[in-house]
Specification:
28% of the residues lie in helices and 20% in strands. Helix 2 runs parallel beside helix 3. About 2% of the residues have low confidence. It binds S-adenosylmethionine.
């Protein structure tokens, strides 16, 4: 196992300025509970007509996912978000994400798609939404949840939401057993209070940035903030759902390390890695008590 020196560490985590593949290769097999990331939508070589080559991206990404599969525990999950691309100049979607998922599910299990709806998203694809007016705003990202097995650790009781007013009324007034037009049977137990509502797989999370302390800290330090950060509520939901305190969360393409910060706040251990030194420096500003670590093997 290669020993890498982290750029900074906290009581619960370590951030590496390194290539994700190098860090992945130095992590012990079956030691990580959750890999949560948003990989770069990077195409090294574009085709002549400026289109995305699905196979190129898949070929680039697979060595990372092979390592991700190896480092995950049997109860572990791999969750990632990549903005679904449009084929340039056509107003139609590239299918590469679907091809990627089909490829990954030769080993992983597709547990569920989570839909992240960002109501503050600007109109894209602009040409088709605002000029030609032939598409509507593209404001939902698919977050893919893959399991190493078909039964990864997960518990929706960790992400319960406040009950709606109509549900609270049902608790007060009771429910009459009935069969809905959809043939679903509503039984007496429907009005049992479980401490909160089970959330749907549509997560409405605005990605607004103005009050983000990270932005202020970057400005004061003269660093350019990362332009494509997770809203903290997204990793918060996923980390709660899929891990418990003390578990290990790993973000191989960490950017500004929102994943590490949220994991730390939730009492999870974390590993982050980012190849751009400025983003690593900026991410360190998220942690008031970070320090310079000594060489050790990871995790
Ligand atoms: C979409 S961004 C991640 C943003 C992150 N989710 C956040 O909330 O800040 C992807 C990041 O992956 C980094 N990256 C690209 N290739 C990498 C590699 N081979 N190893 C490590 N990081 C890489 C990029 O520099 C970029 O910051």
């Amino acid at each position: 196992m290669v020993e890498l020196v982290a750029s900074y560490e906290t009581d619960l985590g370590r951030c590496f300025h390194a290539d994700a593949l190098t860090v992945l290769r130095s992590i012990e097999s079956e030691s990580v509970d959750l890999v949560l990331t948003s990989p770069p939508y990077a195409l090294r070589r574009k085709k002549r007509y400026g289109n995305v080559s699905a196979q190129q991206y898949i070929d680039w990404f697979l060595p990372f996912t092979e390592q991700i599969y190896r480092v995950l525990r049997a109860s572990g999950s791999f969750v990632f978000e990549i903005a679904a691309p449009w084929k340039q100049g056509t107003g139609t979607r590239s299918l590469f994400l679907y091809e990627l998922i089909l490829e990954l599910c030769k080993t992983f299990h597709l547990c569920q798609e989570l839909y992240w709806y960002n109501p503050s998203r600007l109109p894209t694809p602009a040409e088709y939404v605002t000029v030609r007016r032939s598409r509507v705003k593209d404001a939902v990202h698919v977050v893919w949840w893959l399991g190493k097995t078909s039964t990864p650790k997960a518990d929706n009781r960790r992400v319960l939401r406040p009950y709606s007013n109509s549900m609270l009324r049902l608790f007060r007034d009771g429910v009459k057993p009935a069969v809905r037009p959809s043939q679903h049977r509503i039984s007496e137990t429907f009005d049992r209070n479980h401490g909160g509502a089970i959330p749907p797989n549509l997560l409405e999370i605005p990605n607004t940035t103005s009050a983000d302390p990270y932005l202020k800290a970057c400005k004061e330090a003269g660093l350019v903030p990362h332009p494509a950060r997770f809203p903290a509520a997204l990793p918060d939901f996923i980390i709660r759902l899929l891990t418990e305190k003390g578990d290990i969360v790993f973000d191989p393409f960490a950017g500004s390390n929102v994943t590490g910060q949220v994991a730390e706040l939730l009492g999870r251990r974390w590993i982050a890695c980012e190849q751009d030194v400025d983003y690593v420096s900026g991410s360190r500003l998220r942690f008031a008590h970070s320090r310079q670590p000594q060489p050790t093997s990871i995790p």
